[in-house]
Design brief:
Elements (H helix, E strand, L loop, with lengths): L8 H10 L3 H5 L7 H15 L5 H16 L18 H15 L22 E5 L14 E4 L3 E9 L11 E6 L6 E12 L5 E9 L11 E5 L9 E3 L4 E2 L4 E6 L13 E11 L3 E6 L12 H11 L9
Antiparallel strand pairs: 1-2, 3-6, 4-5, 4-7, 5-6, 8-12, 9-10, 10-11, 11-12
């Protein structure tokens, strides 16, 4: 193993796993005397450096704490971490064990009141904790999760047939469930893969969250703004009818209310449609601003149109 060859790797790995058993955690490994325990610990560290088995680290930390470091004397009075103060074999083992966990980091100068712990590399808050004080852990385990809550990721599923309309940087609006206030952000990522089951494409947007109002794992309704048109002409969905080859609306005559003798008619207009939402359809061409279209009951006008157009082909003018 020292030469990088796989001989006996499986046997050694199983041996290190067995160290986590209760009988070995309580004793029974080359005795518990200082020198013999130090020799066992150094042998374990030699193997764990090449095979980082979690059970081996648990056993090593347990016996280093119980057999070589702890003592009944207060730390301020102990000559060197307890009764093993002058046993060079034990002292060497303690130093090697500390160097293994600190990855060679040395505190210089050392202070008696120094305390070691975890530190975040950036601003954030602890959002998850997987350990408790006094628990024996190893370097392969995640104890804390620190997140910057001032910005949140919003994940959306977009239908495959609409994904080609997306462009990075487009505005995104998110309405969390149970809230009436929308949060705006920007589209920052578009997946290159469609989901096999839902046939949707995942996209991501960055949302500012300076007050922390947004919560992790929140559900809601997200919208991607394809085009902003403050002066768009829109009509209710029920005002638009399909005539087999084109969309039409019924526009009220501008002189409808001029007098009792004025013609009470609606004109058929062929229209070109734009974007839609849950209530309205955009009219790109065919209707002028301020014109009134028939909505509720417009199906009666459509029926009359179909009746008058029988045998005359598509779309009466």
């Amino acid at each position: 193993m020292a030469a990088g060859k796989p001989h006996y790797r499986g046997q050694v790995s199983q041996t290190l796993k067995n160290l986590g058993k209760q009988k070995y955690m309580q004793g029974g490994v080359a005795g518990t005397a200082g020198d013999s325990l130090a020799d066992s610990a150094e042998g374990a560290m030699y193997l764990l450096n090449r095979l980082p088995v979690p059970e081996g680290f648990l056993w090593l930390d347990h016996w280093m704490d119980k057999g070589l470091i702890r003592s009944g004397e207060p730390l301020g009075q102990a000559r060197l971490w307890g009764a093993n103060k002058w046993e060079s074999n034990c002292v060497r083992t303690v130093i090697i064990h500390a160097t293994m966990h600190t990855q060679g980091t040395i505190a210089r100068p050392w202070r008696h009141d120094m305390r070691l712990g975890a530190a975040s590399l950036g601003d954030g808050v602890v959002v998850a904790r997987q350990g408790v004080a006094g628990e024996v852990v190893d370097t392969s385990r995640v104890l804390f999760q620190v997140a910057d809550m001032s910005h949140m990721w919003l994940m959306l599923d977009v239908r495959l047939e609409e994904a080609d309309k997306l462009i990075l940087g487009q505005p995104v609006q998110f309405l969390p469930d149970g809230s009436r206030q929308k949060v705006g952000g920007k589209l920052t990522w578009i997946s290159t893969t469609a989901d096999q089951r839902t046939r949707t494409v995942k996209v991501r947007a960055d949302l500012p969250n300076p007050t922390g109002r947004l919560r992790n794992e929140t559900f809601g309704l997200g919208r991607i703004v394809l085009r902003a048109e403050p002066d768009a002409i829109v009509v209710p969905h029920e005002a638009v009818h399909w005539e087999g080859c084109c969309h039409v609306v019924f526009v009220r005559d501008k002189g409808f209310f001029d007098s009792d003798q004025s013609f009470k008619v609606f004109h058929v207009r062929t229209v070109r449609l734009g974007a839609k939402n849950e209530k309205f359809t955009e009219i790109i061409a065919g209707v002028l601003p301020g014109e009134v279209v028939a909505t509720i009951g417009s199906d009666v006008l459509r029926a009359q149109l179909l009746k008058n157009s029988l045998g005359e082909g598509c779309c009466a003018e």
